[in-house]
Amino acid sequence: MKKNGFTLVELLVVISIISILTIITVSQFQTAKRKSNDVQRKGDINSVSKALLTYYNDYNYFPNAVDGQIEGAIWGGSFEDTTSTPAYVYMKEMPRENYLDVPYCYQVDDSNSPKKFALFAQLENTEDKECIGSYSCNGNSYCYAVTSPNTSLNEDGTFK
Predict the structure, then answer these.
(1) d(Cα 94, Cα 76) in Å, to the nearest integer?
(2) Which of 50, 81, 142, 151 is deepest in the core (most CB within 10 A)?
């Protein structure tokens, strides 16, 4: 008498193999998603940096920092100079952190006539070669920073 079908052991082996492949695939997808989010964060910070350099070119100082934000701008809002008529828009929409609970952060060296700035973001992939510091800004910890061309940062996020 010949039986058609699979034995219980054969089914368990196939299910085990499928489970292992699924776990590997999901793990790789999560890693790719974290890296993709970090690329977005780096691009956001670099775009804001360029807008700040344009502002500096116009006024010979950077805008003040207020609670980790650019004075007169809000993460997710616009960055513009409302003192001129018509208002000059440096960024129509400022980027904001959408995935982590740690918002982007901005700081300047001096509130009287800021000549240096730093922008901070926390990366999800801590193995990233650009996730190099443990900077502090507005009470949060960050590992990625972009500064104005005329400065660099100490380990704690203070200007050199």
Answers:
(1) 5
(2) 142
Q: Is 5 left (phi over 0), alpha (psi -120 to 50) or beta?
A: left
What DSSP state is assigned to residue 149? T
* pLDDT tens-digit readout, 17-70: 999 998 888 888 888 898 999 999 999 999 999 999 999 999 999 999 999 999
| Residue position matching structure tokens 């050199």 | 160
Tell me how far CA of residue 39 lies from CA of 33, 59, 130, 158, in angstroms. 10, 31, 11, 25
Domain, as residue range, for 121: 38-147
> Helices H, strands E: what count in the chain?
1, 9
| The pLDDT value given to residue 2 | 66
Q: Is residue 108 part of a domain?
A: yes
Task: Judge whether 10 lies within some domain.
Answer: no
Say if 71 falls within a structural domain: yes
Q: Give me the number of domains the chain comprises.
A: 1
